[in-house]
Amino acid sequence: MTVEPSDETKGPDAIIRVRDLVVAFGPKTIMRGLDLDVRRGEVLGFVGGSGQGKSVLTRTILGLVQKRSGKIEVFGKDLDKVDMDERRALERRYGVMFQQGALFSGLTVKQNVQAPMREHLHLSQRLMDELALLKIELVGLPRDAADKFPSQLSGGMIKRAALARALALDPELVFLDEPTSGLDPIGAAEFDDLIQTLQRTLGLTVFMVTHDLDSLYAICDRIAALAEGKVIAEGTIQTMLSSQHSWVKAYFRGKRGRVLALTRDDRHTPATAGGL
Amino acid sequence: MHAKPGFAVERAGDETRLNLGGDWTLESGAEMERASDSLIGAAAGARAAVIDLANVERMDTGGAWLIDRARKILQNAGVDSQIANARTAQSTLLEAAHWRDFEPPKPPPSHPLSDMLADVGASVVGAWHDLLHGIGFLGESVVALLRALARPHLFRMTSLIYHLESFGLRSVPIILLINFLVGCIVAQQGIFQLRYFGAETFAVNMIGILILREMGVLLTSIMIAGRSGSAITAEIGSMKMREEIDALKVMGLSPMDVLVTPRLLALIVALPLLTFLADMAGIFGGLVVSWGYAGLSPDAFLDRLKTAIGFNTFMVGLIKAPFMALVIGLIGAMEGLAVQGSAESLGRQVTSSVVKSIFMVIVVDGLFAMFFAAIEY
Ligand SMILES: Nc1ncnc2c1ncn2[C@@H]1O[C@H](COP(=O)(O)OP(=O)(O)OP(=O)(O)O)[C@@H](O)[C@H]1O
Ligand SMILES: [Mg+2]
Description:
The complex is a heterodimer.
Chain A: E1 14-25, E2 28-39, E3 43-48, H1 54-61, E4 69-74, E5 77-78, H2 84-92, E6 94-97, H3 109-120, H4 125-138, H5 155-166, E7 173-177, H6 185-202, E8 205-209, H7 213-219, E9 222-227, E10 230-235, H8 237-242, H9 246-253, H10 255-263, H11 265-268, H12 271-274
Parallel strand pairs in A: 3-8, 3-9, 6-7, 7-8
Antiparallel strand pairs in A: 1-2, 1-4, 4-5, 9-10
Chain B: E1 6-12, E2 15-24, H1 30-43, E3 48-59, H2 61-76, E4 80-84, H3 88-96, H4 112-150, H5 157-168, H6 172-194, H7 202-241, H8 244-250, H9 255-294, H10 298-308, H11 311-337, H12 343-374
Bound molecules: adenosine-5'-triphosphate and magnesium ion.
C-alpha cells in the first residue's frame, strides 16, 4: 500500500486536484480561483489566517459546501461527474477529522469507530470490536475510553477519538482539520508522531489544516498557504521561509517562527534561515 | 484490481508453510476473516508454521491484525509460528497492529429477577426525585417571576415579546381551526342525540357549557404543550448540550432569569388569550352547525346561549389557562435543563416533556373540576 511520493507535480499522482475554485456565501466570496494539488503519499500542511477559508476549502472538497465554479478531482475523478455509487466508493477511501470532532454524541467511542465499518464492510462483530479497540489504542487513547460517550471525554481525547474514527476504514487519504489545536505541547508532539507513523505504515496521504508551526516543521512534506482566496505560496518549509509574501513572512518568520527556524536549523539547514 | 485474499499450504515434515497471497485489506471483509480462520486450521497440529507474506500484494491494519491474530492463536496452541518475508512497510504495519488481548472484562453476574426488582426500585426512586425536583423548580421559578416583577427594568422585554409572538400569535390559526371543528362536532352529536327527546335546542346549553368550561382550555393547552412545550425543551436542551447554559452561568447570568422566566411569562399571558379565541371559535362552530343542521337561526342560538350560561361558566375555563401555562412551561424548561451531552438524550427529553405536560394538563383540569364542584361555582 505504500507508494513512493512522485516528483511530478501536476501528474496523475495528485490525489486531490483543485482548479480555479470559486466558493461564496451570498455576496461574500471566500475562494477566488484557487488551485491546489495534494500528491500521493505526502503530508500537506495547509495554513492561513483565521477565517480565510481553510475549513471551507476542506468542506468543499468533501462535497459539503457547494462551489460556484471550478473543478475538483479526487483520486482522479471529477466530483461533478461521478454518480452516487462512485461517490460512495470514493468516500470509503478517505477519512475525515472535523475541527470540532463531530463524534456521534449518542454512541460510545468504540461505536463511533465502528460506525463507518458497519456501513461499508461486512465483518463479524468480534473483528469489528477488535479493530475498533486496535484503532483506539493506535491513537493513544486508554482502553477504558472505548466505552465512554463523547460528552465524557476531554478535548484532547475527542481529537484522538475523531482521528480513530477517521482511520476506521484504513483510508488512503485523510483530512485533518487542526488536529493538534487544543492539545498540550507534549500531546501535540505525540500526535504529530502518530500521524507520521500512520502515514508511513499505512501509506496515507494527509491533508492537514493547521496553525501549529511545530507540526509544520516536524511532519509536513509540503505546505500551502492560503490568503485572499488563493494559494499564495506552496512548497517545502524552505520555500516558505524564503517567500517574499508579507503574510507568509509574518507567519514563518515572526517571533514564534524564528525560534523554530533557528532551533531546527541543524535538521533543515536552509540557506535563508541562516540569515535570520 | 482487487485480488482475493488466500493462501497455499506447503508441508515439509512437521513444518507447515503458509504462502499468503492476494490483498489482505478490509475491502475483502468477511472473506479475509474466513481466510485467517482457515490459516489456523491448516497449520494445527504441526510443530512449526511459517506465515510467508512474499506474495501478499496489499495489506492494511485489518489484514495485519488478522494475520498476527492467527499467528498468536497457533502459538498458543503449541505451534511454533512466525511470519516471514514481510516487506518493510508490512513489518511496520504488523508491528503497529500486533496482536493484543482485547478480551472484554466479564460483566458482573446478574439475575433477571433481581434486575427487575432493581429496575422497579430505581424508577420509584426516580419518580420521587422528579417530584422533589419539580417542587424545587417551581419554587425557583416563582422567585424568578417575582424578581422580574419587583425589578421590571431588568426584565427581558425583547425576549418576552419574541416568545409571545412564537407561542401566541403563531398558534392562533391552528387553535382557531381545531376548536371550530370540535365545536361543530359537539353540536352535531348533541343535536343528533337530543333529537330523540325533542330537546334539540338544549344542544346549545351543552355546547356552551362544554366548550367554555372544558374543551376550549383543554384543547388549547394540549396544542400548546405539543407545540411550545416541546420547543422550550428543545431550545433549552440544545443550549445545555453545547455548554451555552454554563456560559450564561459563568457570566453571572441566571438561566432561570434569562431563559425560563420570559418563556414562562409569555405562556402565562398567551394561553388565556388563546383560550378566549378558542372559546369563540368553538361557539362559532356550534352556531354554524346548529343553523345548518337543526335550522336554529343565529339569533335564536345566541338568545338560548345567554340563558344557558353565566359569566362564571366563561370564567371557569379562563381561570384554568394560566395554571396550564405554568405547568407546560415548567415541565418544558425542567426537561430541557435535564438534557445530557447526547443528541439521543435531547430526543428523549423532548418526548418526555410533551407526554408529561399533556398528562399534567389533564390532571390539573381534573383537580379544578373537583375544586369548582366543591365551591359550587
Ligand atoms: N455556512 C457559512 N455561511 C456563511 N459564511 C460562512 C459559512 N461557513 C464559513 N463562512 C465564512 O467563511 C469564512 C472562512 O471560514 P472557515 O471556517 O473556512 O475559516 P478557517 O480558515 O477554517 O478559520 P480557522 O482557522 O479559524 O478555523 C469565514 O469568514 C466564515 O465566516
Ligand atoms: Mg477552520
